[in-house]
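If your schedule permits, I should be very grateful for your opinion on a structural question. I have a record of one protein: its chain in single-letter code and its fold written as discrete structure tokens. Would you kindly read the sequence against the tokens and tell me how you understand this chain to fold? Thank you for your consideration; the sequence and its tokens are set out here.


***
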Amino acid sequence: MDGVDFLRRLMPQYPIPVLMVSALTQKGKRITLGALEAGAVDFVTKPGVDIARGLNAMLAMRNTRARTIAQDEVSSVVFGMPKVAYERGGAERLMPLDFIADYLIEILVEREKT
């Protein structure tokens, strides 16, 4: 399941603001537009070499109690940013890409119960 498929699955049940962060925004205009059509409210290009800037953004999100999950090494093409984000506390956990969407939906289901 990719990010666009995840949004299509998520939005009918849990219409929440989703910010797309992807390296594909520079080259994958079709994917970016698909994510916006599926319900993403905006997109940000993932920092390429500026890992510190991306990490600061993730830490700021964590300080507001946002949930942050980074892609694990096995399923990543490049593991630099996810590794640093996890090691420095910007990401709460690492997961295979195919499991992230289901995990986020589990979080939303649990929030509904409380």
